[in-house]
Design brief:
3 strands; 3 helices; about 20% strand; 3-stranded mixed β-sheet; alpha+beta
């Protein structure tokens, strides 16, 4: 499922800006849906795009991305 399909079928789901290439699908929990991202791809994007070290990218990810609850449909990050 690509970003266009997700936005068409699930318009209320929230995106993590700048990480579309890390989307792996839609996650479902008890009563919630969210866009699912590959955690390692997000970290690679941070390292490449923002020229962060591995340590800095992981710290940024943990604090600013995973740590950012933005309400229902907050994105999900999966480690494969």
């Amino acid at each position: 499922m690509n970003i266009k399909q997700i936005q068409e079928f699930y318009p209320d789901l929230l995106l993590a800006d700048g990480f579309d290439k890390a989307i792996i699908g839609v996650a479902q929990t008890f009563n919630n849906l969210s866009i699912a991202y590959d955690k390692n791809k997000v970290i690679e994007i941070l390292k490449t795009r923002d020229k962060m070290s591995e340590t800095d990218a992981r710290e940024y990810f943990d604090f600013n991305i995973v740590g950012a609850y933005v309400g229902d449909h907050t994105p999900t990050f999966i480690e494969k």
